Structures are given as C-alpha cells and as structure tokens.
C-alpha cells in the first residue's frame, strides 16, 4: 500500500502548483510520483519550469515533457516538492536515502516554500531510526570519518558509521562524493548535530533539513493529511 499512499501525497502536492511557478523537483520514489502527476497537469496546459535535484529526476521529467532549467539560470524558486526519509513534528527532516541530499538541500534553500510528500510510515516523534546520510569528499575519508565519530561521541550518539556501498564499490553522488550513513537511533539535538557536522572539513553536507519544509502532505489509511510544523516554545 505504501506506493499508493506515496501517489496520493504526490497528487495532492501537484494540485498546489499553479501556472508560472518556478519549481524545485525532488528525487526518490515518492518524488517520482510527483513528477508523473506534474507531467499530467503540464499535458493539460499547466505552464511551469522546474529545477531537478538529480540526474535521475532530470531524465524522468524531461522524458515526460516538463520544461527544465538550472539554478544558474533561475536562482530563485517558488516551491520545491520532495519526499523525506523521516519527518518529525517540527518538520525537521532526514533526507538523502536516494543519495541526492546536497542538490536537494541547495534547491530547497533556494525556494520560497518546500512541500514534503510522504506516506505515514515516515512520520516519527524523534528522528534517527533512519540512518542519517553524511556526504563527504573521497579525499581524506578516514580523517573525516574520525572527526565525525568524535562529534557523535561528544553528543552521546552511537559511533556507527557505514560507507554506503562498501569500501570495494562505494556509492558516488552526482557530485562525485561518498556518503557515510550514521545509525543514530534517536537524534535529540538535531540543530547542534547539524552545526557540528558541517564544521568538519571533508563533510560536504548532511541529511538533516532544518527550517526548510513549510508543509507536508502525509498519506495513510485515513487519507491525505496536511501537516504544518509545530512551533517549539
């Protein structure tokens, strides 16, 4: 059923798109449902232009007739629609399961709004069950890994880092980087962790998306719910 829920959330997000919008288009299985929904609306006359967050998304969107550009040509966007691996009540996200977190974050940050689309299994009270992707440059990998482990230790988080794809055939992002997946179980200080990770030379970006998502459409057995971030006082 999860595919059906993903499709429902994606279809609902596509309804929010209006002609003239400059769109960021996400990556991953849920985002692909959105690309198909958007293409159907484009076929009906919707006039939009999109910036894809990965080569895979670019290929799919282009094949379906969606007009595309780049952030160099169009550096400010109205809306990004993307999936998430986890989202908490404040709409802090873990993203990067598909390996496109750097481009996804750049595009989301260039957008006035970000709508997250997900099935209800992605909603959690505390982030961390899904491994946190940390994008790193290949040069000095072991030194970077060591620095990340020191940060995890200081924040009392499990020292479990796994090179995606393994050392024999490491996964490479569209930017040519590696990904270290951190199995943290529960992230109680997301902002502090985010700040300390990006301060490490060798870390390109991490999969914590903070203060980027403005709304989520979450689909489950009781339909599609609109989720807004709960403000922490």
From TrEMBL:
Keywords: Isomerase
Binding site for substrate: 27-30, 82-85, 95-98, 122
Top EC class of this enzyme: isomerase
InterPro entries from the UniProt entry: NagB/RpiA_transferase-like, Ribose-5P_isomerase, Ribose5P_isomerase_typA_subgr, Ribose5P_isomerase_type_A
Coiled-coil residue windows: none
Active site annotation, chain numbering: 104
Stated role: Catalyzes the reversible conversion of ribose-5-phosphate to ribulose 5-phosphate.
Keyword Membrane: no
Gene Ontology biological process terms in this record: pentose-phosphate shunt, non-oxidative branch
GO terms of molecular function: ribose-5-phosphate isomerase activity
Protein's recorded name: Ribose-5-phosphate isomerase A
Pathway where this protein functions: Carbohydrate degradation; pentose phosphate pathway; D-ribose 5-phosphate from D-ribulose 5-phosphate (non-oxidative stage): step 1/1
E.C. no: 5.3.1.6
Keyword Isomerase belongs to the record: yes
Catalytically driven reaction(s): aldehydo-D-ribose 5-phosphate = D-ribulose 5-phosphate
Self-association state and partner proteins as the record states: Homodimer.
Pfam families: Rib_5-P_isom_A (PF06026)
Family designation: Belongs to the ribose 5-phosphate isomerase family.
């Amino acid at each position: 059923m999860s595919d059906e829920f993903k499709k429902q959330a994606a279809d609902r997000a596509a309804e929010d798109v209006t002609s003239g919008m400059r769109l960021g288009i996400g990556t991953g299985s849920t985002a692909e449902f959105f690309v198909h929904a958007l293409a159907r609306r484009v076929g009906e006359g919707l006039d939009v232009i999109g910036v894809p967050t990965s080569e895979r998304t670019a290929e799919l969107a282009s094949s379906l007739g969606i007009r595309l550009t780049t952030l160099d040509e169009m550096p400010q966007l109205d809306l990004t629609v993307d999936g998430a691996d986890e989202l908490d009540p404040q709409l802090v996200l873990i993203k990067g399961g598909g390996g496109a977190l750097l481009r996804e974050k750049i595009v989301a940050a260039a957008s006035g709004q970000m709508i997250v689309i997900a099935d209800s299994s992605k909603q959690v009270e505390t982030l961390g069950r899904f491994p946190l992707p940390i994008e790193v440059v290949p040069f000095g990998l072991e030194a970077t890994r060591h620095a990340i482990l020191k940060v995890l230790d200081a924040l009392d988080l499990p020292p479990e880092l796994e090179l995606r794809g393994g050392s024999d055939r490491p996964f490479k992002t569209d930017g040519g980087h590696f990904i270290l997946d951190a199995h943290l179980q529960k992230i109680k200080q997301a902002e502090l962790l985010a700040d300390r990770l990006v301060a490490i030379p060798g870390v390109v970006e991490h999969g914590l998306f903070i203060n980027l998502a403005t709304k989520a459409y979450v689909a489950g057995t009781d339909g599609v719910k609109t989720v807004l971030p709960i403000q922490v006082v």
